[in-house]
Design brief:
Layout lengths: L1 H18 L4 H15 L4 H18 L4 E5 L13 E5 H8 L3 H14 L3 E5 L5 H13 L3 E6 L2 H14 L4 E5 L2 H12 L2 E6 L5 H12 L2 E10 L5 H11 L4 E7 L2 E6 L3
Helix pairs in contact: 1-2, 2-5, 3-4, 3-6, 5-6, 6-7, 9-10
The structure holds S-adenosylmethionine.
The site of S-adenosylmethionine has 19 residues, from helix 6.
Length: about 260
C-alpha cells in the first residue's frame, strides 16, 4: 500500500516533469503516467480491468503445480536449463505485474496506439491481458509475447482465450531462440515490454535487437531496472543510448521513446 502511494507519487512527479516538453511523445508518456497514477480509466477500460483482475485473483489462489526452467542457473544461451516446480499462486503473486503497473501499460497502449507489440516474459499472461485489452479497445494492433516455460504459456493462452483476446499470441522457448522469430513475425516494432531475463548483458542485447527493428517513436518499457547493480547499469546504458528520448526512471520500470518520433 505504501509502495503504491510512493509509485503513484513518482509517476505524477515524472508526468509533471514531461508536461512542459511540448512534443507529442513526451506528452503521451506524461499523460499515461498521470492517468495511471490517478487511476483515471474510462468506463470501457474499467470494464476490462474488471474482467482481468478476477482471473488474477483466481490464479493467486491456485495451489496447482507448474514447471519452470531454472533460468537463474544458466545464461540460457542455447543450453536447455534444468526445471523447478512452482505453485501457480506463488508465481502469480511474485512475478505478475501488480494492478498499478499493469494499468500503466494499458494506458501506454491506449495513448500511443501501437500496431506491432512485443513482450519478453509472458509468465501467466497478466501484463499481456492488459496490453491486449488496450489494443482491443484501440481497435487495432497485436501483441506477440515470449515465454520460456511451456506450462506458464499454456495458462496464459487459456487466459487470453477466456477474455476473447485473439490479438495476443505466445511463442514458447528461450528468448535467445524466439526473439528473432517474433521480430520477423511482427515487422517494425511500435511497443515492447522487456520483463524477463533481468541481467545486464542480455537486457542490453534485447534492447539492441529490438531498437534495430523499431519504428520511430516506439515505446520501450523495461522492468526491474533497479533490481541489481547489473540492471541499473543496463538501464543507464539504454537511457543514454543514441536515439533514446524521454527516458523515465520509475524505480521499478524504465520507459523511453526510441527514434525521433
Ligand atoms: C517477471 S515474469 C513476467 C511477468 C509478466 N510480464 C506479467 O507481468 O504478467 C518473467 C517471465 O520470463 C520468463 N523468462 C525469464 N528468462 C527467460 C528466457 N531467457 N527465455 C524465456 N523466458 C524467460 C520466466 O519464465 C517468467 O515467466
Amino acid at each position: 500500500m505504501l509502495k503504491d502511494l510512493y509509485f503513484r507519487h513518482l509517476m505524477k512527479r515524472q508526468a509533471g516533469r514531461l508536461a512542459g516538453c511540448g512534443e507529442a511523445a513526451g506528452l503521451g508518456l506524461s499523460r499515461a503516467m498521470r492517468s495511471a497514477a490517478a487511476g483515471a480509466f474510462s468506463a470501457e477500460e474499467h470494464e476490462w480491468i474488471g474482467r482481468i483482475e478476477p482471473i488474477r485473483r483466481e490464479m493467486e489462489a491456485s495451489s496447482a503445480e507448474v514447471r519452470q526452467p531454472d533460468w537463474g542457473a544458466t545464461s540460457c544461451g542455447g543450453v536447455e536449463p534444468g526445471a523447478i516446480t512452482r505453485i501457480v499462486g506463488e508465481v502469480c503473486r511474485s512475478a505478475s505485474k501488480p494492478k498499478l503497473w499493469a494499468g500503466f501499460l494499458l494506458k501506454l497502449v491506449r495513448e500511443f496506439r501501437p500496431g506491432s507489440c512485443l513482450e519478453l516474459g509472458t509468465c501467466l499472461g497478466v501484463s499481456a491481458c492488459y496490453e491486449g485489452a488496450g489494443l482491443h479497445m484501440n481497435g487495432a494492433g497485436r501483441l506477440v509475447t515470449l515465454e520460456g516455460a511451456p506450462e506458464f504459456a499454456e495458462i496464459a493462452r487459456a487466459n487470453f482465450q477466456r477474455l476473447g483476446l485473439s490479438n495476443v499470441s505466445v511463442i514458447t522457448g528461450p528468448f535467445q531462440k524466439t526473439l528473432g522469430e517474433a521480430l520477423d513475425q511482427l515487422g517494425p516494432i511500435d511497443y515492447a515490454f522487456i520483463d524477463g531475463h533481468h541481467q545486464e548483458a542480455p537486457t542490453i542485447e534485447y534492447f539492441r535487437k529490438i531498437s534495430a527493428r523499431a519504428n520511430p517513436g516506439a515505446v520501450l518499457v523495461f522492468d526491474d531496472i533497479n533490481w541489481s547493480d547489473g540492471m541499473k547499469r543496463a538501464w543507464r546504458s539504454v537511457a543514454s543510448s543514441p536515439g533514446v528520448f524521454y527516458p523515465v526512471n520509475l524505480h521499478t520500470l524504465g520507459v523511453c521513446i526510441y527514434g525521433n518520433p
